[in-house]
């Protein structure tokens, strides 16, 4: 009997619930809890499998612990927001349950995301014989697994990685983000950092741009360098990496809107006084923008997320490109969500299956590249995200 408790009923929570229900041979019971229980009930109603629902404030450890004790899951899947990572980890420790998430902890009042806070739980999880798997989404998540695969199978030494995330889809809205707008805008407007020769090097947000020719008919798109959290764990756990960069596509239209919103102060994360009330502009902006969940039926096109790893094989320099292509409309037909939530939610469930079946299980706090990548990818493909490996091509240095 492997019961899971999913926390967060947003775009990703919906996909995770659908996919847990499809994994009946491993997952035998599902409870979906979130701040707004009506959203849990709406997701449960889409699924032909009994899904229990509950209301919970995931900022409150005793409330979470009470829910966990009542539901008795083997694993908590955290797909709420990064602000809740530590409280949910604390509740898992208090109740003796394993933990999985898809994004690293970020304090609400500081746009700073890094693993140090969660890595600090290593001893507490290990001593209790519990496991926490960090960043089991696509990026972070599958991109870490692809890098580990390059290191295990295709290169003797991985020296450089370019993680490239393309959303070649279109939703027809003037401006919308594909996942939680607050998290998305905080990430995109942060100072860029990339890894080079043993340290992170800073540059202004979105100041480095290239055109990259994507495979499988997607074609050339503008990619912009930004900081992304998987680089922090990858350069620690695969220390041969001398250079690591993360790239994402943005349309000119998206960047135009973002620039104006920033210039007028709408992306600020500090409190401002308005009509005798304190508001945080980016939270107000989130309330105005389309709910990413509402983009599902509108979004057409594909995503292409992957890693180009460069290094040495048999004494010669070699490159390997490992990627996945995902179709927005096919995702919507299957789980009523666009590909951004799908590509996050499916790896979360595959991570859960790895833990629940014991294929990936050891006490402590771990990142994805610390386990056998092939075991994960063997399950990821049949669950909806097949992997393409182009071994030994030539891609321009970025
Ligand atoms: P959404 O904003 O759509 O959903 C978040 C959900 O969490 C909502 O249901 C929200 O409740 C709930 N929630 C927020 N605060 C609390 C709280 N205090 N207590 C209980 N529930 C709470 O986000 P997404 O589904 O788009 O993203 C979910 C996670 O996935 C995020 O952490 C995001 O960073 C991560 N992510 C990871 C990616 C990857 O590839 N690794 C890619 C994309 C996202 P309510 O409905 O009431 O607001």
From TrEMBL:
Pfam families: Sacchrp_dh_C, Sacchrp_dh_NADP
Domain (Saccharopine dehydrogenase NADP binding): residue spans on this chain: 4-133
Protein name (record): Carboxynorspermidine dehydrogenase
Domain called Saccharopine dehydrogenase-like C-terminal: residue spans: 137-381
Domain of life: Bacteria
InterPro entries: NAD(P)-bd_dom_sf, Sacchrp_dh-like_C, Sacchrp_dh_NADP-bd
SUPFAM superfamilies per the UniProt record, alphabetical: NAD(P)-binding Rossmann-fold domains
């Amino acid at each position: 009997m492997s019961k899971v408790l999913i926390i967060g009923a947003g775009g990703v929570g919906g996909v995770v619930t659908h996919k847990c229900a499809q994994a009946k041979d491993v997952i035998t019971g599902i409870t979906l809890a979130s701040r707004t229980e009506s959203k849990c009930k709406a997701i449960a109603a889409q699924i032909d499998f009994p899904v229990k629902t509950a209301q919970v404030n995931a900022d409150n450890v005793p409330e979470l612990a009470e829910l966990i004790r009542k539901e008795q899951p083997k694993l908590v899947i955290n797909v709420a927001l990064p602000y809740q990572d530590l409280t949910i980890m604390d509740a898992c420790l208090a109740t003796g349950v394993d933990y999985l998430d898809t994004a690293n902890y970020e304090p609400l009042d500081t746009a700073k995301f890094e693993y140090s806070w969660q890595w600090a739980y290593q001893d507490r999880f290990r001593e209790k014989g519990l496991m926490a798997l960090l960043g089991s989404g696509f990026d972070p998540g599958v991109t870490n697994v692809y890098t580990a695969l390059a290191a295990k199978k295709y290169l003797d030494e991985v020296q450089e990685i370019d993680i490239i995330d393309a959303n070649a889809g279109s939703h027809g809205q003037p401006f919308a983000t594909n996942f939680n707008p607050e998290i998305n805008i905080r990430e995109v407007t942060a100072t860029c950092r990339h890894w080079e020769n043993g340290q992170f090097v800073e540059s202004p947000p979105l100041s480095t741009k290239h055109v990259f020719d994507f495979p499988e008919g997607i074609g050339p798109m503008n990619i912009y360098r930004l900081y992304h959290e998987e680089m922090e764990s990858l350069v620690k756990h695969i220390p041969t990496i001398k250079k690591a960069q993360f790239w994402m596509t943005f349309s000119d239209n998206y960047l135009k809107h973002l620039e104006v919103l920033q210039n007028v102060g709408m992306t600020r994360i500090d409190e401002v006084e308005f009509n005798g009330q304190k508001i945080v502009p980016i939270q107000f902006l989130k309330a105005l923008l389309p709910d990413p969940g509402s983009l599902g039926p509108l979004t057409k096109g594909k995503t292409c997320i992957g890693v180009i790893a460069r290094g040495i094989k048999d004494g010669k320099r070699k490159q390997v490109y490992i990627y996945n292509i995902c179709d927005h409309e096919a995702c919507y037909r299957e789980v009523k969500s666009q590909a951004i939530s799908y590509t996050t939610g499916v790896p979360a469930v595959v991570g859960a299956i790895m833990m629940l079946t014991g294929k990936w299980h050891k006490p402590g706090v771990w990142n994805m590249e610390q386990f056998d990548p092939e075991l994960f990818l063997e399950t990821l493909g049949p669950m909806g995200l097949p992997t393409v490996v182009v071994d030994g091509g030539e891609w321009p240095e970025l």
